[in-house]
Amino acid sequence: MSDSRTQAASQETTAWTTSGYLMLGLLIVVFVLTAARILGFASGNPTDADVPGFLAGIFFGPVLFVLIAKGFYMIQPNQAAAITMFGSYRGTDRSHGLRWVWPWMSKNRISVRANNVVSEKLKVNDLRGNPIEIACNVVWRVSDTAQALFDVDDYKAFVYVQIESAVRSIGSRYPYDDIEHQEVTLRSHHDQINAELRTELNARLILAGITVDECGLTHLAYAPEIAGAMLRRQQAEAVISARRKLVEGAVSMVEMALNQLSEKGVVELDDERRATMVSNLMVVLCGERDAQPVINAGTLYQ
Which SMART domains does this UniProt record tie to the protein (predicted)? Predict the structure, then answer.
C-alpha cells in the first residue's frame, strides 16, 4: 500500500497561448480608436448626451490597452515558459517568438537547451577498497518542464548532487584495475562504465524531468597517498603477465621443435639429451639478452 504522503509527479502539458503579433495588431487598433475618440470629442461640438459615452471610451480604452500589453512575453529558441494561474499549473508554451497569454497568468521561463557539467574530482574507495580519484562529464537537458519546476526545489542543484552520488556509486562498484581476475574495471572498460553511469543518472534524475544525453569519465587515478605503491604493483603485474605469456610461447615452441626433430629423424635424443636441449632452448627463448652460442667440439658427456 503506497504512502498517502507521497508526492504525485507533475506532467508537462501544452498551455493555451496565442501569437503575440496578432495581439500586437489588436493593441494598435485599440490605441488608434481611443486616440481618435479623444481627438474627435475635443475638436467637435459635443452635447451633454455625448459625455457619458466619451467617459466610458476613455476609461475602457486604456484599461483594455493595459490588459493586452501585460500579456506579452518573449520565448527564445530552445526555451519554454510554464504558465501558472494563482499557483495552479496551466501548461507549458514551447513556441518561440512573441507570445501572448491572459495578463493574470504568470510566466516562468526555463531553458531546455543542453547543459554541460564537469564534476569535481571525488575521492572514492573502489571495489578493492583502494582510494581513487574520479570525475566525469555529463551532458543533460530538461525534458519535462513541469517536473523540473514543481517537483524539486532547485533542479540545477539537484542535478549536481545526483551526479556526485552516481559517480561515487559507480566508482565503488568496480575495481580500478585488475589483471589477475579479468574483471570489468574502471580503467579498461570505458564504454561499459559510461553506459552504466548514464543509465543510473537517468534513473536518478527522472524525478526532476531531466534527461542525460551523454556522460563519460574525464579523470581516473589512484589517490596520491597510494599512487606510488599501486604503480609499482601495476608494473609487477605487467611483468608477471608478460613473463607468463613468454613462457607459454617458449614451451609451445620447444614442444614443436622436439616433435619435428623426432618425426623427421634428424637426431635421436635420449632423456638426458632431450632435457639438455629443452633447457638450452628455454634459456634462449626466455632470456632478456641475446644468447651467445657455445660450440661443443666433443660430445655431450665430455
Answer: PHB (SM00244)
Instruction: Using only the alpha carbons of the chain, give its radius of gyration.
Output: 40
Nearest 10 degrees: Cα torsion 280, 283, 286, 289: -130
Nearest to 24 by CA among 74, 69, 76, 70: 69
Q: How many domains does the chain have?
A: 3
217 shares its domain with 120: yes
Regarding whether 162 and 238 lie in a shared domain, the answer is: no
In single-letter form, the type of residue at position 53 comes to G
Give the structural domain span for 241.
234-286
Task: List the one residue out of 53, 59, 54 whose CA is nearest residue 42.
Answer: 54
Map residue 178 onto helix, strand or coil. coil
In this structure, are strands 122-125 and 18-19 parallel, antiparallel, or unpaired? Answer: unpaired
DSSP state of 14: B
Classify residue 243: in a domain, yes or no. yes
Are residues 261 and 269 in contact, defined by beta-carbon separation less than 8 angstroms? yes
Largest CA distance in the chain: 148
The contacts of residue 231 (CB under 8 Å, 6+ apart) are 222
Residues in the chain: 302
Cell of 7: 508526492
Q: pLDDT of 196-240, one tens digit each?
A: 999 999 999 999 999 999 999 999 888 877 666 667 777 777 777
Q: 97 and 132 in one domain?
A: no
Asked if 175 and 128 count as a contact pair (C-beta separation under 8 A), the reply is yes
